[in-house]
Amino acid sequence: MSNQQYSFFHSVEKSFDKAAKFTKWDKGLLEQIKACNSIYSMRFPVKMDDGRIEVIEAYRVQHSQHKTPCKGGIRFSDEVNQDEVMALASLMTYKCAIVNVPFGGAKGGIRINPRNHSSYELEKITRRYTAELVKKNFIGPGIDVPAPDYGTGEREMAWIVDTYQSLKPGEIDAAGCVTGKPISQGGVNGRREATGLGVFFGVREVCSMKDVMGKLGLETGIKGKRVIVQGLGNVGYHTAKFFRENGAILVGLAEYEGALYNADGLNEEDVFQYRKKTGSILNFPGATSIAHSAEALEMDCDILIPAALENVVNGDNAPRIKAKIIAEAANGPLTPEADEVFASKGVLVIPDMYLNAGGVTVSYFEWLKNLSHVRYGRMEKRFTENMNSHILSQIEELSGKQVGQKEKQFIMHGPDEIDLVHSGLEETMISATREIMDIWKNNPAIPDMRTAAYVCAINKVATSYTELGIFP
Length: 472
Known about the structure:
The chain has helices spanning 3-20, 27-34, 82-98, 119-135, 154-167, 194-207, 210-216, 234-245, 268-278, 336-345, 352-355, 358-372, 381-399, 405-412, 417-442, 449-468, and strands spanning 38-47, 53-62, 70-76, 104-110, 144-148, 226-230, 249-255, 258-261, 288-290, 303-306, 325-327, 348-350. By secondary structure, it is α/β, with parallel strands linked by helices. The longest helix has 26 residues, at 417-442. The protein is globular.
């Protein structure tokens, strides 16, 4: 196992230990919270399109069952290994605790490069993986609920739910065995952009705090802030979109083939379409192309958002980074060494473990929708519209004035599913941000926001264990 592969789980443990010192819990209880409860490592044969048989390596790790079901994505990547899956599963436990989503943490991974397989091969691999999980009771709406992650999406989730339903006929809540499904298969509106939107809500809340921004020498608010986003996948794309739409200037975009910089601002949709056409973001008209993607992280900006892979900011490049705020949209993009550099420089790192919790928050809404068998808004949309319409007509009658058509439509509008999902996500991210900041303010010895977030998570998980009576 190479050093870098090992470092991710080790760095999660390091961050945990750093925060545990600021809590009152018994050492044994802390050890239990830190440990991965169940690790399922599997190998299974799949026949490829050309007739040869390939043995696939795959994992599912359940980190904690202090709340059930467990929850966590499945990634397809040739970098997948047990250590990485363990680290991501433990981050899921802490993430769910911080944003008050009642799940234990889990994670899955299949060690393949999806680009090297046909759609039919990927389907066979995904369905076989699901069957293996069913065999060992590692999947189910009350046991363990996977979701999309790096290299997977709605298509793979549809294969999983279909395989599960065929192996568990008549299970009424079967659609809740996985989230991130297509809408037609029981998915929820708003899941696709959830992580990026959650990142935006979290950063926006931090940027609205006068004392925090004062220390960084920045004005409050998102408007006019210069932002660099690394990664133009689902998370990076939506993060860039919401920041730009709300008045931030997207000065840089980086992908694995290189990066773009334009001080006047880029439009992520134009860059995305250009890349679709040419296969690369490089030589995008009107922007400076940078051959080495990593160099973009060091360009001038106010907010840097790594939204791709882990360990991209380390002890070596951290001193050269100019951003005042680093918002971790990806899982584990900073090493513990980078954290120390930024803490000493007075740079604010908004940690991944809660900032990218938009995905799991909306997954929770999807799971609830599957268990209740009714879409959000169906019961109250018309009632709200009728009530608002009545109130509005009374106001017009009493005041003798007419409300403008645009305003009228806005006031009368009853919530659709997507309105309720976005509203629930906004509430979740604002509450979590305030909770972490309060912990940090009330204990000045806590060195950074990540440690404060871990303290928040540890307290919640430990309280769960003690209330279950497992640890008196």
